[in-house]
Design a protein that fits this description.
The protein is α+β, with helices and mostly antiparallel strands. It has 25 helices and 24 strands. Strand 15 and strand 16 (382-388) form a beta hairpin. Bound molecules: zinc ion.
């Protein structure tokens, strides 16, 4: 990025951030999430650090909190209310400790700091002043120097004392918050009254404490966790927390004294997983050096005290730049647009690509090349773009156009038609398309397929590019000397690969069927089919009707499988493979103790569920039908059996219990 480009970006970011800050703080109506906002702020901060000449006192990075609203009296804090710096990883946490230890060593202090780790509650910071043991003033933090006087509102909070046991004159710092269930309840009421809803508990807390009518506040069930004392000169953070507890403040019990940052890390990991279980929002931990005397020695940076740090949880939502849209051809021939991103950390892992699914999705998002996009992990695994920051769109942003031809084999792309519906994806229908080829090969060797353990995605790709693997059967023709000496492959790894190929030469029918990658034939279908037909030869002879008749196989799946088995191209793949591998017959259901016997199950059985009973019958070769007829041999009846029992009695069908069934199996 050139300085000119950086300057433009910095200006755009500042305007965008100001716009959203206004929506959030002044209007209480945010349109982007806090995390997306924070992500943009981090980018601005990084640019200002990289190009100090672009820094400006008016930049939002210098605004530590919201300006006081005009309605409330302004309050100048006796002691400046700093906010802590952030770290996002264990490495950064260790670096923070190291910097402190270096500074302490310089001052000839050899005491090693210990730490108190507390949950960082996602609420609103409040400053509570006590004079001679009496609560005299409550204020918001505001910009750190000047806040708003919200004394009347704070007085309604039941978790803080209005009198202390001794005539302490001190300032107590706390975090005001609200329970998630209160947010739900209040939003429900607001919905009925057609008022705008609160986005999260933090907004609700802020909105509530800035109510001019304290009677409204009193009804809202605001909580305050107290966590710091100023003005008493206690010796440690632990002492402060204990005194607060003794004086009747609500202090969060979930805190930990730590000898080392290593222990902090354990506590952090524990809470990273558990944070959503609390009835309040937590966005990280606050780590404070326990020894107060070290705080004075360490002092402050321009923005924050050095002796404490906020250790934020991994961001679930971030922003980054979309630099290109490429196409990926999948195993089925579906052509998927993929966003190529400037690498960014999401929920703890580095992301540089995200699927855009199809053209409909690209249109829905209105995403263009060059855009700044909001990204999150869907279900914590796959990165997903869910929004575009339109105010940051550059003039030369380019709309993506789906090409007419397959990027790999240049055959014409088509849409699939299922019934009356046209697919949203475009497909490459060329059976020889090299991209489909590679994806198919990877699927073939994968864990649920042939499970050639040592042939992972990357290795197959490499061997495919080198022409060592051309089709599925060629995998089994690989020799040690083909591999040994290739870049990154020594003798040992060549031996391992050959060994794992040989191990995969014997495969159960179900896994073989799945490995072939037949359209719509998933893992379970492959199992059902294999169990039903037992051998590959019998499956090949089956009619379309016979395949569809297998339980769990529908028409679409059956047709696809039948077509595959009778297509000359696929037949050649299978014949070539059969020369290399041994397909194990699957144990068939017929021939068991219950072979040829039809059952109906009704009522509640004493120990087995219906599905378990069904499985026992089928595993032993029997059949389970859903209704009683003259062909039914046995009715397995449990408690509260209804009309089926009457039917069976009328038809003279034998009626047995669960125990009767188990005895039949043992016969
Ligand atoms: Zn193609």
């Amino acid at each position: 990025m050139t300085l000119v480009e950086a300057k433009k970006r910095v200006e755009d970011l500042r305007q965008t951030l100001e716009h959203h800050r206004h929506l959030y703080h002044a209007l209480d109506a945010p349109v982007i999430s806090d995390e997306v906002y924070d992500s943009l702020m981090r980018e601005l901060d990084a640019l200002e650090k990289k190009y100090p000449e672009l820094d400006s006192p008016a930049s939002p990075t210098h605004r530590v909190g919201g300006e006081p609203l005009p309605h409330f009296e302004k309050v100048t804090h006796e002691i400046k209310q700093w906010s802590f710096d952030n770290v996002f990883s264990y490495d950064e946490l260790c670096a923070w400790e190291e910097r402190n230890v270096t500074l302490l060593t310089k001052e000839k202090i050899s005491d090693k700091p210990t730490y108190v780790a507390e949950l960082k509650i996602d609420g609103l910071k409040v400053v509570l002043t006590y004079k001679d043991g009496i609560f005299v003033r409550g204020a918001t933090r505001g910009n750190g120097e000047v806040g708003e006087d919200i004394t009347e509102n704070i007085k309604t909070v039941k978790t803080i004392p209005l009198f202390l046991s001794k005539k302490y004159s001190m300032t107590v710092i706390g975090e005001a918050w609200m329970k998630k269930e209160d947010l739900e309840r209040i939003n429900k009421e607001r919905k009925r009254e057609e008022l705008p809803l609160y986005a999260n508990t933090r907004n609700l807390t802020a909105g509530t404490l800035r109510q001019l009518d304290s009677k409204v506040v009193a009804k809202r069930n605001i909580q305050i966790f107290a966590y710091d004392i100023e003005g008493l000169n206690l010796t440690s953070q632990q002492d402060e927390l204990e005194l607060l507890e003794q004086e009747g403040f609500l202090v969060n019990k979930d805190r930990k004294f730590c000898q080392h940052v290593k222990d902090v890390q354990t506590f952090y990991e524990h809470w990273t997983n558990k944070r959503f279980n609390q009835n309040y929002g937590i966005d990280g931990l606050v780590i404070k050096i326990n020894e107060r005397k070290l705080w004075d020695v360490l002092g402050h940076t321009a923005k924050s005290p050095r002796a404490g740090i906020a250790y934020k949880f991994p961001a679930e939502e971030v922003t980054t730049k979309l630099v290109a849209i490429t196409l990926q051809v999948g195993r089925t021939g579906a052509v998927t647009p993929v966003a190529e991103l400037e690498p960014v950390l999401v929920a703890g892992s580095n992301v540089k690509r995200a699927t855009l699914h199809n053209m409909d999705e690209i249109k829905r998002l209105d995403v263009r090349i060059g855009d700044t996009v909001s990204l999150r992990k869907a279900g914590d695994v796959i990165p997903e773009i869910f929004d575009v920051v339109l105010t940051l769109r550059p003039k030369n942003a380019k709309a993506f156009v789906m090409p007419k031809l397959c990027p790999e084999c240049h055959s014409t792309l088509v849409k699939e038609v299922v019934g009356k519906e046209e697919s949203s994806a475009w497909y490459c229908k060329n059976k020889d398309c090299p991209a489909k080829h590679l994806e198919n090969l990877i699927h073939f060797a994968s864990k649920k397929g042939m499970y050639i353990e040592e042939l992972g995605d990357k290795t197959i790709e490499t061997f495919h590019d080198l022409g060592l693997i051309t089709d599925r059967a060629s995998m089994f023709k690989l020799k040690k000397e083909d591999i040994e000496g290739l870049d990154g492959f020594g003798e040992k790894s060549a031996e391992n690969i050959i060994a794992s190929i040989n191990k995969a030469r014997t495969v159960p029918l179900s896994r073989f069927l799945f490995a072939l990658g037949i359209r719509h034939v998933g893992e379970q279908t492959a199992k059902d089919i294999a169990k039903h037909f037992g051998t590959f030869e019998l499956l090949q002879k089956a009619t379309l009707e016979e395949i569809i008749a297998v339980g769990g196989v529908g028409e679409k799946v059956g047709a696809s499988l039948y077509e595959y088995l009778h297509d000359p191209y696929s037949q050649k793949i299978v014949t070539d493979l059969q020369k290399e591998i041994n397909i194990l017959d699957e144990k068939k259901k017929t021939g068991g103790a219950l072979s040829g016997i039809t059952f109906v199950i009704t009522g509640t059985l004493p120990t087995l569920s219906r599905d378990e009973a069904k499985k026992i019958i089928e595993d032993n070769g029997g059949k389970v039908s859903s209704s009683v007829s003259s062909k039914t041999n046995y009715l397995v009846a449990g408690e509260e059996a209804g009309s089926k029992l009457t039917n069976a009695q009328n038809l003279g069908v034998k009626i047995i219990t669960e125990q009767g069934l188990t005895e039949l199996v043992k016969r």
